[in-house]
Amino acid sequence: MEQNNFLVGFLVCLVNVLLSAPTMGQLDGSDRLPSPAWRRGIPIHLVLIKEVQVEISLDEESIKKIKVLCGDKDIGRRQAPDEEQIQKTLDAILSLEQIERLHQIHVQQMGMHAILDANVAKAIGLNDDELSQVRMAQKIYFRDSVANVKKRDNALLSKIEATRGKVWNSIMTDDRKLALEKLGGKKVLLRSPSP
């Protein structure tokens, strides 16, 4: 039951990102989905996870500043954070090495979905046509998955996933899978948000 709730929550979040306004990511054409927003800046949600804080050697003062910036209710800020201000503050708090490591961890967490980003796709050797195919397969997957949410038809969901998987597997060679894994850097096991 908990796994189903996580899956539905994950799908809803991804659909929201994919269906958001063009300002939420670069649009490369009408047949493509927006690039993931994390490529525009530092993936803030990762900085709030305890294991990531340890991995990038973030000190307590920096953690507190980030929580204030993000509107942590326990610290007192309740106003929605401004994205530009978040990026400026994080740029001031984090070193270039910490920022790079955050992007590596984000690639790990996104898994195969990371190839939807034009920068990641280019880095692993996808051409524009291949990226377009992957993005279209993902778009169809989400459309069909959302239509299936109320039905909760597991057999249909498996079929939807298999259809997307065929496209992804035809494009992702072993060399590209290895290149994607290298972009993620050293593996980090993430378990819980920071208290």
Description:
This protein is an all-alpha fold and 195 residues long. The chain is 61% helix and 0% strand.
Task: Produce the secondary structure layout.
Elements: H1 2-18, H2 44-47, H3 50-55, H4 60-69, H5 83-93, H6 96-110, H7 118-124, H8 128-148, H9 154-171, H10 174-183
Main β sheet profile: none
Question: If you average the pLDDT, what whole number results?
Answer: 76
Oligomer: single chain
**Order of SSEs, N→C?**
HHHHHHHHHH
Structural class of the secondary structure composition? mainly alpha
Number of strands: 0
Keywords:
mainly alpha; 195 residues; single chain
The gist of it:
With 195 residues, the chain is mostly helical. 61% of the residues lie in helices and 0% in strands.
